[in-house]
Specification:
The chain is of the alpha+beta class. It contains seven helices and ten strands. The chain starts with a helix and ends with a helix.
Length: about 230
């Protein structure tokens, strides 16, 4: 994979995974006593969960904790992003900023290229709003342009099917149009205060990539349940 493709896809994944632009499959009758995400997990608990998943072989890349990640999201490449169309920009700016402020973060490498992002918020309202607005997000951001001062990125988003052990699963396919062509599959599991997001770049088989994403999401949920 060319570096420019992965850089563009990572930037879009970082913004959209934290902003909730995914297709939603919420399950009805969600229990008020969640096994995962009843309360916010600490940064240490998130890191421990990813380290445990790494020991099981689901993750093979490095694990980064909240203290390592937060400065990256404060760099101009994220803070100075401009997005069009205007409706998409308004949606992303409000949710992205709120989530960075309220959430604890952790990150793991599924392998040398694919990544997993784990976030837990102060309460479930942030993610409840994400699920409610995901349909509009796909409409407003189906085709978009992003510019972070180093160049323009064009992309298209498409809802795809996925399932996980989380009460709500979202999934979508990002197609990068410029500066170089490429794709990324995103599988997101949402449970209470917790969002687990697997991003797999340039899949040879989209269905197989979705299955790998589902496996990773479920493994993290299992570890969090034991915290």
């Amino acid at each position: 994979m060319k570096k420019t493709i992965k850089t563009s896809a990572l930037l879009i994944a970082g913004v959209f995974v934290l902003s909730g632009c995914g297709g939603g499959n919420p399950e009805s009758g969600e229990s008020s006593a969640l096994a995962v995400g009843q309360d916010q997990y600490s940064a240490d608990e998130l890191e421990a969960a990813l380290e445990a998943v790494k020991e099981d072989g689901i993750l093979t890349g490095a694990v980064e904790n909240d203290a390592m990640l937060r400065p990256q999201f404060e760099k101009p490449s994220y803070t100075d992003i401009t997005i069009s169309p205007e409706q998409c920009a308004a949606l992303l700016s409000s949710t992205f900023d709120r989530k960075l402020q309220d959430g604890n973060l952790a990150f793991g490498g599924l392998n040398d290229s694919d990544v997993l992002t784990l976030v837990s918020y102060e309460d479930a309202s942030v993610l409840e709003e994400q699920v409610e607005g995901s349909g509009q997000a796909l409409t407003d951001c189906a085709e978009l342009q992003m510019n972070n001062g180093t160049g323009q990125i064009t992309a298209a988003l498409e809802k795809i099917d996925a399932s996980s052990e989380a009460p709500t699963t979202q999934a979508y396919l990002t197609t990068i149009g410029q500066p170089s062509s490429g794709e990324a599959v995103h599988v997101i599991g949402i449970s209470g205060t917790v969002q687990v997001s697997a991003t797999l770049f340039d899949p040879a088989d989209v269905e197989a990539a979705v299955a790998d994403g589902e496996e990773a999401v479920n493994a993290v949920l299992t570890e969090l349940e034991q915290q």
